């Protein structure tokens, strides 16, 4: 039988995610902030449902995640060169500004570093590191990809990030598939160990 994991990691990450969401809602254009809030909820929920009890073991999953993170940086390069922060403020006529410096520091460099640290942590099956695998898969990948196809429709033309948005669907879809498959394999391994002990 699976040993129940400690609850502290889930609690700490829930508090940190809530703090990040609060900051986003208070400072960023509300439409961008809402996407980040939904991404946080989806990422935390996927982590709890699939990888909290059984942290990822497969290097294949982690390798795909790291490739996805590399792609995320390419995507954000398109966003930056197209003036994404300014464009989203204009698109939604937001009263809040989104300085490019803040965009770079928080979302490119800050989250970029966190993503790679999480990849290193996932190699050692550190529970908290697995949160970021799901954050990319469901939030920065899938949800962000969807948003980048909606924005051009609202604008009636190109919106920064559109050209690389399709890659998010491919990378996040593959990562979600592998994360769920990994959970099933680890669960099957545990059941086999229990059955061997019973015998």
From TrEMBL:
InterPro entries: HXXEE. It comes from the Bacteria. The keyword Endoplasmic reticulum does not apply. The chain crosses the membrane at residues 7-26, 32-50, 62-83, 103-124, 131-151, 157-180. Keywords: Membrane, Transmembrane, Transmembrane helix. The keyword Transmembrane helix applies. This is HXXEE domain-containing protein.
């Amino acid at each position: 039988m699976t040993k129940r994991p400690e609850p502290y990691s889930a609690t700490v990450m829930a508090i940190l995610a809530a703090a990040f969401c609060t900051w986003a809602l208070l400072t960023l254009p509300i439409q961008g902030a809402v996407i980040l809030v939904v991404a946080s909820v989806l990422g935390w929920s996927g982590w709890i449902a699939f990888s909290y009890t059984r942290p990822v073991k497969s290097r294949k999953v982690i390798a795909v995640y790291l490739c996805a993170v590399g792609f995320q940086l390419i995507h954000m390069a398109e966003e930056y060169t197209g003036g994404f922060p300014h464009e989203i403020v204009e698109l939604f006529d937001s009263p809040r500004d989104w300085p490019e410096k803040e965009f770079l520091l928080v979302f490119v460099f800050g989250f970029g570093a966190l993503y790679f640290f999480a990849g290193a942590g996932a190699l050692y099956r550190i529970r908290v590191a697995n949160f970021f695998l799901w954050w990319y898969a469901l939030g920065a990948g899938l949800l962000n990809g969807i948003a980048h196809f909606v924005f051009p429709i609202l604008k009636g033309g190109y919106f920064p990030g559109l050209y690389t948005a399709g890659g998010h669907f491919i990378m996040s879809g593959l990562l979600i598939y592998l994360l769920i498959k990994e959970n099933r394999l680890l669960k099957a391994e545990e059941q086999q160990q229990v059955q061997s002990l019973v015998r």
